[in-house]
Write a structure and sequence with these properties.
By secondary structure, this protein is α+β, with helices and mostly antiparallel strands. The chain has helices at 2-25, 34-47, 79-92; strands at residues 52-57, 66-71, 99-104, 111-117. A 4-stranded mixed beta sheet has the order 1-2-3-4. Helix 2 crosses helix 3 (79-92).
């Protein structure tokens, strides 16, 4: 009986030790600076436009001056106006003099439907 009691307690102890070790060693990269600003632009664009998938840096280089706006293939949308709106939102979030590319990503190869260089 004592042996069963010890083995029943052993499993939760092992699970707790594993969980504590996992939490202590896991590391999430914070999204700060340029990453945070681009993320805010993406959230603002997606908030009221169902055809926008998101805004991201076109390269992996943080602080680059190029934003890619990925959109769904939607009829009747003024893509130049979306690029203008993106410029305004980017400037509000401290991203100045950006190059904006609006890209349909549902087709292969991706189709650039608008380009804009923000003032």
């Amino acid at each position: 009986m004592k042996k069963n009691k010890h083995s029943i307690l052993l499993l939760p102890i092992i699970v707790l030790l594993y969980a504590a070790l996992y939490i202590a060693t896991s590391y999430s990269v914070p999204c700060e600076g340029d990453c945070e600003r681009v993320s805010r632009v993406s959230e603002k664009l997606r908030a009221n436009k169902s055809y926008v998938n998101g805004a991201y840096r076109c390269t992996n280089i943080q602080g680059s001056d190029t934003l890619c706006i990925y959109v769904k293939d939607t009829i009747g949308v003024d893509w130049s106006r979306l690029a203008d709106t993106t410029c305004l939102i980017a400037q509000e979030n401290g991203l100045l003099q950006q190059k904006i590319f609006v890209i349909k990503n549902a087709v292969f190869p991706n189709d650039t439907v608008a380009r804009k260089i923000c003032p």
